[in-house]
């Protein structure tokens, strides 16, 4: 059963995610702003912004939800060989702005990006608050790829990734998953699935299950030094 699309007011409260539209899948609300307070409230409740230039801000909570259970990422034999022989260097929070810039560049066959200047500014603020983080893949001194997202409780909410070097975004995802597993995380959220994500071990779960897990684990206290800038030196075959 579909419900009306909610028009957000000046408060930072969202309607419950279960009231999202069936078509388009997950559209819940329109309007509001990208303040840190509103974004934090959104993520806590399984909601995220996603819109295009010239549109009002659209807020989504799709059903099903595409996630990586932390211990389920798939590393193929060929990818394992690539990981073992690679000269890439993998870091956390060494170049957040540059990673967001890389993710915001229009993709091949896509004329525009959804990571607009106001979105970039909003996530920069979350980064300064210690909530948004990047994983960088370096080829020498050049940024070959990476990903960024928001981390709260036992969750990492992935926002976007990019590659300019071979397999760079896959390396970022694999190393991040290992790091999250080492630190007792539960899920890496990918929002909406695609063949590439599924090939690497992503699965769909019911939105109701995702929201229940958020309610149970979003308040988990992360280690204080978890997101200090560092180099990641290991990955594991799950």
Automatic annotation (TrEMBL):
One function term, GO molecular function aspect: transferase activity
Catalytic activity: L-phenylalanyl-tRNA(Phe) + an N-terminal L-alpha-aminoacyl-[protein] = an N-terminal L-phenylalanyl-L-alpha-aminoacyl-[protein] + tRNA(Phe); N-terminal L-arginyl-[protein] + L-leucyl-tRNA(Leu) = N-terminal L-leucyl-L-arginyl-[protein] + tRNA(Leu) + H(+); N-terminal L-lysyl-[protein] + L-leucyl-tRNA(Leu) = N-terminal L-leucyl-L-lysyl-[protein] + tRNA(Leu) + H(+)
Keyword terms, alphabetized: Acyltransferase, Cytoplasm, Transferase
Taxonomic superkingdom: Bacteria
A Pfam entry, by short name: Leu_Phe_trans
This enzyme's EC code(s): 2.3.2.6
Subcellular location: Cytoplasm
Family named by the database record: Belongs to the L/F-transferase family.
Protein's job: Functions in the N-end rule pathway of protein degradation where it conjugates Leu, Phe and, less efficiently, Met from aminoacyl-tRNAs to the N-termini of proteins containing an N-terminal arginine or lysine.
Record protein name field: Leucyl/phenylalanyl-tRNA--protein transferase
Gene symbol of the encoding locus: aat
